[in-house]
Amino acid sequence: MDIVFTLKKTLTLLALVDPLLAIPLFISATSGLDIERKHQFSRQLGMTVALALLAGGLFGLHFLSFMGVSLAAIQVGGGAIVFVVAVAMVVAKEETVKYTAAESAQAASGPSIVPLGVPLLAGPAALSYVMATSRIEKWGDLLPVILPPVLAGVATWLCFRVASRGGRLLATTSLKVVERLAGFLLTAIAVEMMATGLKALFPPLVS
Prior knowledge:
mainly alpha; single chain; globular; 10 helices
């Protein structure tokens, strides 16, 4: 069961981080750099994504509990954010939802972890998702908390490493199809998150 959930969580995080969408910003930000510096920046972005998501998964719920926010509230709120991003992916408006014009311009102006790494890649949707799905009650719960963020970071690094060499991972048409399918699956996951949270907040809904 943990393996299945870990796989599901990894795929969801990859869709929410979506490094493919940020490739134009990465290329613009690194246009004046040599290949070694581009590779270094791609590693930094991958590590930033992994560490930010790990921090959200390991410590996010503790911080929110300290603030008096329940897991159920995070599931509802995080599900709503994921739902908005998912719908934007389905209608090909993800970039306008995840990035403001000012953030895009700043990210493309030069190699900087902020805002390209955080909050454009490891943004509110991805962070709220890992917090809502990272409850640790036994040692076995650590696998789906730690592995998906690490794999999302590795995927981000590899994506930008290929882009730094001028490679194309997918054709534009194929990329649009993949993003729409990912968005459709994310809508279902978002609804599931919100339903779980609403049931915990309002127990009469279960009866």
